Amino acid sequence: MAPRRALVLIALATALAACGTKPVPRPAAAAPVAAPAAAAAASDAPKKPVEAEWVYSSAGKRDPFRSFLSELSGEKRERETRCATPLGRFEIEQLKLVAVVTGLEDPVAMVEAPNGVGYSLRRGACIGKNGGIVSAVRSDGVVVAEWVIRADGTRDSTQTVLRLPKQAALNIEE
Question: Are 11 and 19 a contacting pair, CB within 8 Å?
Answer without folding.
Answer: no
